[in-house]
Amino acid sequence: MLGRILRSASTTFTFGRTLNAGDLPAFGDLVTADAAGGPVYGLIYEIIVEDDPFVRQVVAASADMPQEKIEDMRQRRQVPVEITALAVAFRRHDRIWQGVPPRPPGALQRVTACDCATTRAVLDDFAFFRLILNHGQAPTDELLTASLLNAAGCQPPGQDRAYLLDAGRELVRLLAQEPARLDAILRRLAAYAETSHE
Q1: What angle do CA 135, 100, 141 make, to 5 degrees?
Q2: Beta-bridge partner residues of 5
Q3: Which end of the chain offers a freer environment for a tag, N or C, measured as fewer CB atoms within 10 Å?
Q4: 129, 122 contact by CB (below 8 A)
Q5: For the chain, how big is the Rg over CA atoms in Å?
Q6: Where are the beta strands (DSSP E) in the chain?
Q7: What are phi and psi of 113, to 5 degrees?
Q8: Which of these, 125, 123, 163, lies nearest to 147 by C-alpha position?
Q9: Cα 4 from Cα 1, distance rounded (Å)
Q10: Quick check: 87 and 40 in contact, CB under 8 A?
Q11: pLDDT, tens digit only, all 198 positions of the chain
C-alpha cells in the first residue's frame, strides 16, 4: 500500500503517506484505488513533501546540526507527503476502459502501485494520451513521456521498442500541428529505446 485517499475529483485523486513509509512512488507511475464502481487507475504527476514548524526549525539550525541528527529526525518524524494522480482509466464489468471514471475513489481508500501486468493492461491502448494532453494542471509532455517509458519497461522482453514505435505513431497523429512539442517527446522516447538496446 502506498497511502490513503485524502481527496478526489472526477479527473484526479490525491493520497497521503509519510516520508518514512518506504520508497516513494515516482512521477509517471501508475497507481490504483477502489471507487464505488470498481478500481480507478491514475498516473502520478505531483509529489509534495510537506513542511511544518519543526521542519522549519531544523532547516534554520541545520548549519550547526550534525548530519547524523538530521537523518535520525528524518527517519523518526512522520513527515507528510501528498501525491496526486491523473485518473486515466477504470475497470468495469471485468474490462478496463480508458477515460474519466464514473466515480472518483472515496476518502481513505487504499492506493496501491500497479504491477507490470496491470500497467500493460491499462496502458496498452493509447486513448489515455488525450486525457494527459488536455489536462491543464499536470506537466503534460513530461507525464506522457514518463508514463510511456514506464509502460515500455513493463513490456515482454524485446517488445518495448515496438510499443514505443506504436506510441510514436499515435503522437504524430495527435500532435501533427505542434511539431516542436512532438519532436521533444519523440527525442526522449528515442533516447530510451537506444539505451535500452545497447
Answers
A1: 30
A2: 15
A3: C
A4: no
A5: 19
A6: 3-8, 12-18, 30-35, 38-49, 80-92, 95-98, 110-113
A7: -75, 145
A8: 123
A9: 8
A10: yes
A11: 999 999 999 999 999 998 776 788 999 999 999 998 899 999 999 999 887 666 666 666 666 777 777 676 666 666 789 999 999 999 998 899 999 999 999 999 999 999 999 999 999 999 999 999 999 888 999 999 999 999 999 999 999 999 999 999 999 999 999 999 999 999 999 888 777 655
- Residue 9 grid coordinates: 475529483
Q: Report residue 188 as a C-alpha cell.
A: 526522449
CB 3 within 8 A of CB 51: no
C-alpha 100/C-alpha 181 separation (Å) is: 25
Cell of 197: 538496446
Q: Please check whether residue 12 is in contact with residue 106, taking contact to mean a CB–CB distance below 8 angstroms.
A: no
